[in-house]
């Protein structure tokens, strides 16, 4: 009643606060435990920051864009690969998305980067791509995936990742090279985890793409990066961006000052309309003169302007003379061609005697055999043609000289 608390009341209050504190402490501990378990179950999103994911996605986007161009040249069909999505994943999460057997293609970097990544394609997509590479229409996908398919997709990935490495080299400012990719068919539902690459046993980076090849393929592909390799790729990317930033930030050099313009010539006084302009003088041609040499010199006003525009300027007379040409004689030495022909008399020419010609089809020619008689377009006793370098110059008749054939020229063709 007097506002004072008894000892019993004080003890009761203290015990109640302790109970409430115990409940709050247990609640906080439970919340922390739930957050930790959620982080573990969620794939460890804290392993990469959002900025790192964006940078890695940009690198993958440029690389796969170049690879799509290469794949187009291999399958001769339009290829579209969408913008990638970068997440942290585990093997269990991958197996839930890809329940069928998939083709794993392992790419090793042997220069410029230290590490490797995995490219995952669906089995049916690989069959379509390999059928298109072999000249098919992409519909021959029956049967099991064999060594021929794996060899073909390995070659396709070798060219695609090779062009991707070239793009990375330009982007990162260093030479990037890869070893030949290795393709294998893996059934993720039954595959022994011990046979998988070591980085797939824990958390890794998953980069998902949507790939479309004409109307035949519309599915998802993905690249799997170890966490350390993804961070190394990010460091190189940021380093290349910082290296190029100072060069881009340098101010452009100031333009050189332009020379002062030449002073404008004073306008001519108004022309007296009553006075007729005097006739032009005959000492110089009536045309505009060449420009005066020398910087800033005002143009001459005397040439090309009617007389009477201001005071006439003194122009030095030009010496104009009529052109003089040599006189040619009609006398031609008839022996000159004979003298010039001596220069080419030793040139050898090919002389051919043509008995005749005929036309045959390919079928008739294939039937030729020893003893076949070929009828020509010449009649017996008709003059034969004499050709010099393929040009008909004479006609003649066949004669026999001792044991050799000869031709007696009977006509010269002009």
Topology:
Elements: H1 7-41, H2 50-75, E1 79-81, E2 85-89, H3 91-97, E3 102-111, E4 115-122, H4 123-133, H5 147-172, E5 177-178, E6 182-186, E7 204-213, E8 217-225, H6 227-249, H7 336-341, E9 351-354, H8 362-366, E10 384-388, E11 391-401, E12 404-412
Antiparallel strand pairs: 1-7, 2-7, 3-4, 3-5, 3-6, 4-8, 7-8, 9-10, 10-11, 11-12
Helix pairs in contact: 2-5, 2-6, 4-5
Structure, described:
- With 414 residues, the chain is α+β, with helices and mostly antiparallel strands.
- Among the domains are: 199 residues, Chemotaxis protein chec (3-Layer(aba) Sandwich); 61 residues, Surface presentation of antigens (SPOA), CATH 2.30.330.10.
- It is 34% helix and 20% strand.
- It contains eight helices and twelve strands.
- About 15% of the residues have low confidence.
Based on Cα principal axes, name the global outline: elongated
Point out poorly predicted stretches. Answer: 22-45, 271-276, 280-288, 290-311
Provide a count of the helices: 8
Instruction: Summarize the biggest pleated sheet.
Output: 8 strands, antiparallel
In round numbers, the mean pLDDT is 74
* CATH homologous superfamily grouping of one domain: CheC-like
> Which CATH class of one domain applies here?
Alpha Beta
| Helix-strand category | alpha+beta
* Percent of residues in beta strands: 15-25%
Head-to-tail CA distance between termini: 155 Å
Specify the helix fraction band: 25-40%
H and E string: HHEEHEEHHEEEEHHEHEEE
- What is the radius of gyration? 48 Å
Second CATH tier, the architecture of one domain? 3-Layer(aba) Sandwich
